[in-house]
Amino acid sequence: MKLLILPDAAAAAARVVDEIRDLVDEKPDARLGLATGGTMEPVYQGLVASDADLSRVTTFNLDEYVGLSPQHPQSYRSFMEARLFGPKRMSRKQTHLPQGDAPDPEAEADRYEAQIADGGLDLQLLGIGANGHIGFNEPTSSLGSRTRVKTLTRRTRDDNARFFDDPDEVPRFAITMGIATILDARHVVLLATGSAKAEAVAAMVEGPLSAVCPASALQLHRRATIVVDEAAASSLALRDYYETVHPGGAEPEL
User: Fold this and answer.
1) 149-188: per-residue pLDDT in tens?
2) Contacts of 219 (CB under 8 A, 6+ apart)
3) How deeply is 51 buried, as exposed, middle or buried, from its count of CB atoms within 10 A (0-12, 13-18, 19+)?
């Protein structure tokens, strides 16, 4: 893992924007895996404000709630349309999410997995849950899992309840890329900010490889870049070392 500690959340998000822009500049038809959630909002704001040309990229989001139509205001399709796809005038042909209201969610998961595998992903953007989940791969998820229907934990549903008028409206299931699907991406970039993510970041980076912390599977990835702010780095035992290797998030001078 490459661990980059930036001074604050804004600087961390800007670094992730730079990672995406650099890829798209080099490969205009890049295949991007995208994530949702509050941590990602400044990333998408940065991309919209930038001159990044996304007209030829193809995107695949990590997950979608089972039972929500693309038009539902709390669907991840709606989230992405409002924050990135619409402002950057990206067409529906470019942007892909699982269909949450598909009549057969299991078959939809298989279809989506095949669509991702047909070309793979050049970069997968990730957040991390306070319980260590990536995508909706909750604790005890198989590290060899592929895109599938996953039951959400009570903690995840409680964390997401703020987006719904009634907590009971939060779906119990989601279609999510599996951990093995994520690990197949050629580059993984994970962004974590705030003290609430500090324990999960430490477990991901320094803890044992374990299904209890699904994000720890990124220890196996050949090119994983972890971008955090100082608050999210506060529980790292080897923080001084990471800052020595990448001072201020910069590349080391050999």
Assistant:
1) 999 998 889 888 888 888 888 899 999 999 999 999 999 9
2) 1, 204, 205, 209
3) exposed
Give all strands of the β-sheet with 148-151 in edge-to-edge order.
Answer: 63-65, 173-176, 148-151
- Taking only the tens place, the pLDDT of each residue in 46-59 is 999 999 999 999 99
HSE-CB of 153 using CA atoms within 13 angstroms: 17
* pTM of the predicted model as reported, rounded to 2 decimal places: 0.96
pLDDT digits (tens, 9 = 90+) for 113-149: 999 999 999 999 999 999 999 999 999 999 999 999 9
32 in Cβ contact with 59 (< 8 Å) = yes
Active site residues: 63, 131, 133, 138
- Do 122 and 23 contact (CB within 8 A), yes or no? yes
User: What is d(CA 211, CA 214) in angstroms, rounded to the nearest whole number?
Assistant: 5
Measured over the CA atoms of residue 148, residue 152, residue 153 and residue 158, the dihedral's sign is positive
Residues facing 243 on adjacent strands: none
**Mind spelling out the 3-state secondary structure of 111-169?**
HHHHHHHCCCCCEEEECCCCCCCECCECCCCCCCCCCEEEECCHHHHHHHHHHCCCHHH
CA distance 160 to 119: 32
User: Cα(157)–Cα(159) distance, rounded to whole angstroms?
Assistant: 5
> In 3D, which of 35, 90, 80, 16 has the Cα closest to residue 57?
90
The per-residue pLDDT for 167 is: 84
